[in-house]
Amino acid sequence: NNSNTETRLTLSEKPDNTGLYFLLASQFFNSVMVISTKLLETDPAFEDDPIEPFQILVVRMLITFIGTLLYMYFHRHSIPHVPFGPPEVRKWLIARGSFGFFGVFGLYTSLKALSISDAIVITFLTPTLTGILAAMILKERYSKIEGVCGLVALFGVVLVVRPTFLFHQDGNSPTSDKSEEAVESTSSKARVVASLFGLLGVCGASSIYIIIKHIGTRAHAIMSVTYFAFISFLISLFGIIFSPNTTFKIPQTLNQWFLFFIIGISGF
Fold first, then answer.
1. Does residue 9 or residue 160 have the better pLDDT?
2. What is the pTM of this model?
C-alpha cells in the first residue's frame, strides 16, 4: 500500500515549467526589441544622419529603469535592500551593469550594417564563450562535444562575416539597391566592423552570465536589471553628450515614437 501511494504521488507531481515560460517570453520580447531597433536605425527619415545606438539605449534604459523602480516600490516589503541591493554584492551588480552595456551596445551597433539574422547568428557564440568562462572561472564542466559545437558556431560566424581574404568580395557594388543597403551593407569593411561590434556584444553577454551566476540568490533579480538599466542609461547619455558625431534626435513621426516605446517596454 505504501508503494502504491508513493507511485500515485510521483505520477501526480507535475514539473514546474515556469522558468521555461519566462525564457520563451524573454526571447519573444527580445526579438520585438531587435526588430524595432533595426527599423529605427534604418528609418528613411534619418537617412542623412542615421539615429545612433546611444539614443536608442538612452530611451530604452530610461523606460526600463523607471519600470524597475516601480516594481521595487510595489514589492518593497518582499525585496530586501531596496533600491541598492545587499552591500556585499553591489560591486558585482555594478560590474553586471557595465558589462551588460557593452553586450547590448555591441548588438545594436552591429545592426547598422548587418541584417537581423546575421547579427543574431553572431550572438550564437555567446553560449560557447559562456561555457569556456564558466569552466575557467566557476570551475564548471565543459565537455568535448560542447567544444566541437563551439567550433561549428565559429565557422558559421565566419560565413556571416565573409572576410575579403576568404571570399574576395567587391565591397561596393554600383548596382546595389538602397533598400537592400538599408537592410544589410554591401561594404566588406562595414560588415567586418559591425561583426567586431557583434563579438563585443558576445563578450559582454557572456560576462554578465558569469557575474549573475556568481551573485546567485544573494540579490533579487530585479536588482540586476536595475543596475543594468541605470548604468547603461548613464553611459549612453555621456556618449551622446561627449561624442562629436552624435546628436539627440527628436522622433519626427508617430511611428518613430511608437518604436521607441515598444523598445523600452520590450526591453523591460
1. 160
2. 0.81
